Amino acid sequence: MSGPSDYQPSNPALQWIERRLPILGLMHSSFVVYPTPRNLNYWWTFGAILSFMLGIQILTGVILAMHYTPHADLAFKSVELLVRDVNYGWLLRNMHAVGASMFFVAVYVHMLRGLYYGSYKEPREVLWILGVIIYLLMMATGFMGYVLPWGQMSFWGATVITNLFSAIPYVGESIVTLLWGGYSVGNPTLNRFFSLHYLLPFLIAGVVVLHVWALHVSGQNNPDGVEPKTEKDTVPFTPHATIKDMFGVSCFMLLYAWFIFYMPNYLGDADNYIPANPGVTPPHIVPEWYYLPFYAILRSIPNKLAGVIGMFSAIIILCFLPWLDAARTKSSKYRPLAKQFFWIFVAVCILLGYLGAQPPEGIYVIAGRVLTFCYFAYFLIVLPLLSRIEKPRPVPNSISDAVLAKTGSRSTPMVSSAIVLALAGALFAGSADSARASEGSDKPPGNKWSFAGPFGKYDRGALQRGLKVYKEVCANCHGLSYVAFRNLAEAGGPGYSVAQAAAFASDYKVKDGPNDAGDMFERAGRPADYFPSPFPNEQAARAANGGAAPPDLSLITKARSYGRGFPMFIVDFFTQYQEQGPDYVSALLQGFEDKAPEGVTLPEGSYYNKYFPGHAIKMPKPLSDGQVTYDDGSPTTIAQYSKDVTTFLMWTAEPHMEARKRLGFQVFIFLIIFAGLMYFTKKKVWADSH
Amino acid sequence: MNPDASTIAAGAPIEVDLSPVAEGQDIKVFWRGKPIYISHRTKKQIDEARAVNVASLPDPQSDEARVKSGHEQWLVVIGICTHLGCIPIAHEGNYDGFFCPCHGSQYDSSGRIRQGPAPANLPVPPYQFVSDTKIQIG
Fold first, then answer.
1. Across B87-112, average pLDDT
2. Catalytic residues of B
3. Is A464 left (phi over 0), alpha (psi -120 to 50) or beta?
4. Cβ-based contacts of B27 with chain A (< 8 Å)
5. pLDDT tens digits, residue range A121-158?
6. In 3-state terms, what secondary structure has residue A122?
7. In contact, A356 and A285? CB cutoff 8 Å
């Protein structure tokens, strides 16, 4: 991409191809001999990281699509069965879902890098604008991908976001109808989102090619913001940049693997493990963390149309950045004021993200307005003004001068910025769940679970006892529809033999048919059957239980959560605390009180529960001491029952957890060794260049 | 990309029997995939809705214009918040009407916006009384 190549392959077959299609020469000139500034720091490896992530997303996405069913009635179930039954389906899904978040982590670093070092300035305007287009496409893709599992947050996120377009005067309503393909978000919406979600990544890949092309025409910017002048200022892309990028990617993969194997649900929302229900709105609708700053801008403007315009212009304004900032010095390294304002801007974005996850009331609204003003002021007031009044420090004559003049003091801003960015990630990530922090109920006490932590395993005894409690107590009202009898004999489960699972299944009566006469009939259960639900449909369940349908328990420990609040959610990232759901379920089972406290009136047919949001629960106290007999001598107390049944329900929600953590450990060992090798290879390759 | 024929056909008018809905109760039915609230309003709710100075409302509309005359006790509205499409909860909020949990919009007992970011009142779907206890929506 940087002019005609004089590359000549030595192999005659390759020569034959090269004469007809000079693709090897193109590769050679773009990725081997391409001159790259020798003073690039690690923030420049994020381009390679992003290409890697795009590849991962497309690869895992294509395989996931082979198992997914884009239908409103089947989508949620197909995703669940994919995770349970497809070989390494859990890994594919985690890689893809976490991958989306990691993709945005990397893109935000990449964009802020461009902002800090002035990479959008002449002659790289088109390069920058192509980047903004990629970012917009990524947002659309990410949003539509989030809709596909068809959980509660998928459905309501889709409703809220598609309704944004209804704010457009005159044509808004028609646009929304076109997006929906009906009168509301429904099956046609899911179908078109699936189609577009499959299409857009390939558009992104296309624009990425343009982006790289534009980059290779104008050349890379660098931390000193002076263009390379002589041969001494650059090093060849291979091996220098290649090996450095490999090291960057392997470090990034460590973070990625941390989420995939140890905290796959940390960045998600528990509500998305509840199937979509058009009749119930979740109490807080929060988008994925990477949209939160823009969501905060939308909500802080009281007028609907103005809010939508504000949100979109917050992104579009980036396209005009090359002309808003007219300063001649590129790098903020030599711009003392711009540097300060840059970090203030980063803080503003982080805080906006935090506010986006908070309920829109009181102080949050006012803070949101102030920060929205700051966000736009940075682009419209600060940058244009700075380019007129700021006196930049002298810029080195050339890159090699800058490299020679390098001293130890230069590394300080790197460290401080790394700290700010780490904090940013943590704050963003956890802010989603802090939205549900205070629902007016007590926080469940923490428990010691055998399955917690990086080496956690299910306690087989607890799983077997929990199954008994479920069968004798919970199963009277609650289904377990994603769990099959055969699962009881699978590795990482309660540890029954295949024969035991078959015997267990044969105790159940399962409806089958129609037979040759066209009648439905009942037969004994087989290992392949799923646990039968106590009620034929949701309406029957509702009618039999005073209007509140008992939820299916297959996913309950992942579908329930409680806010950990600041700063606990940051601590949770390091301690791998993932057990909000089990803590809540176990607390709920023990949280019944015979009499409501003074001043609390319960609606008819409700019971008081200390941990249930709103305290009025329709389920009567389900467990009492001695209710279920245990054969292994474990105490037959409510506390023990709760613990056992919660362990069992954690297994039903995540039957492959042991495999996940085991594989995670192996992957970590590999990645650490790999990253180490890359680091020392990189040091060797760069030994003469520093 | 517009709705296909089966979707349009499924959006045909529906009939709803009102006789089981007691005073002060409300029911939610689905029409065209949208929840429709049918409230049997109490005398107090009607009086509150009519006592308001119409000109002071964000989206001025009198209660009389939002219900069918002779059937003042029945309020029929599409239960979709005009802000961003969430479903408001009936019998909540400060105005004896609806409260949207997403962004805090509050509607009164006539389904009119009183507080919060929503720009307009809850829309009244096309409907008519087939008999005293039965309505046809659509």
1. 84
2. 103
3. alpha
4. none
5. 999 999 999 999 999 999 999 999 999 999 999 999 99
6. coil
7. no
- Indicate the DSSP class of residue A280: -
Please indicate if any CB of chain B lies within 8 Å of the CB of A574: no
pLDDT of residue A663 exceeding 70:
yes
ipTM, interface predicted TM-score of the complex? 0.76
Residue B42 carries which DSSP code? -
Residue identified by tokens 């267990």 is A504
DSSP one-letter string for A378-446: IIIIIHHHHHHH--PPPPPSSHHHHHHT--GGGHHHHHHHHHHHHHHHHHHHHHHHHTTS-SSSPPPPP
* Strand-pair partners of B77: B37
3-class DSSP state of A287: coil
Burial zone of A681 (CB within 10 Å; 0-12 exposed, 13-18 middle, 19+ buried): middle
Alpha helices for A507-595 (secondary structure H): 538-544, 556-559, 568-575, 580-590
Kindly state the tokens that stand for A451: 């399955």
H or E element in which residue B14 lies:
strand B14-17
At A476, is the secondary structure helix, strand, or coil? helix
Q: Is the pTM of this model over 0.95?
A: no
Chain B residue with minimum CA distance to A179? B1
For the record, the structure tokens of A297 come out as: 């801008």
Which DSSP symbol is given to A531? P
Q: Is B39 helix (H, G, I), strand (E, B) or coil?
A: strand
- A189 interfaces chain B, CB cutoff of 8 Å: no
Mean pLDDT on A36-64: 95
B118·A304 Cβ contact <8 A: yes
Which tokens in the block code for residue A199? 């299409």
Report residue A599's pLDDT band, with 50, 70 and 90 as the boundaries. confident
Q: Please check whether the domain covering B16-137 is classified as CATH 3.40.50.300.
A: no
In B, minimum Cα distance to A163 occurs at B84
Q: Which of A195-204, A253-262, A600-609 has the lowest mean pLDDT?
A: A600-609
Q: Rounded to the nearest 5 degrees, what angle is found at the Cα of B86, between the Cα atoms of B83 and B87?
A: 120
Task: Kindly report, residue by residue over A407-446, the tens digit of the pLDDT.
Answer: 544 445 555 566 666 666 656 555 544 444 444 457 888 8
**What distance in Å separates the CA atoms of residue B115 and residue B120, rounded to the nearest whole number?**
11
A183-194: pLDDT as tens digits: 889 999 999 999
Backbone angles phi, psi at A608, to 5 degrees: -85, 125
Mean pLDDT of A264-282: 90
Averaged pLDDT, A489-514: 93
Mutation target among A155, A175, A183, A185 for the B interface, most CBs of B within 10 A: A183
Q: Across the beta sheet with A616-617, what order do the strands follow?
A: A592-593, A607-609, A616-617
Count, residues in chain B: 138
Neighbouring CB atoms inside 10 A of A39's CB total 23
| Euclidean distance between CA atoms A639 and A619, whole angstroms | 18
**pLDDT of residue A289 exceeding 70:** yes
Determine the Cα–Cα distance for residues A656 and B61; give it in Å rounded to an integer. 57
What are the φ/ψ torsions at residue A387 (nearest 5 degrees)? -65, -15
Taking only the tens place, the pLDDT of each residue in A373-403 is 999 999 999 999 998 999 999 999 888 888 8
Pairing of strands B14-17, A616-617: unpaired
CB contact under 8 A, A183 and B2: no
Quote helix, strand, coil % in chain A, to nearest 5.
60, 5, 35
The dihedrals phi and psi of A60, each to the nearest 5 degrees, come to -65, -35
Strand pairing category for B127-131 and A592-593 = unpaired
Contact by Cβ (8 Å): A300, A372: yes
Bridge partners, residue A509, by sequence: A524
Q: pLDDT (tens digit, 9 = 90+) per residue, A129-139?
A: 999 999 999 99
**Among chain A residues, CA nearest to B116:** A302
The structural domains of chain B, with segments of one domain joined by +, span 16-137
Task: Band the pLDDT of A284: cuts 50, 70, 90.
Answer: confident
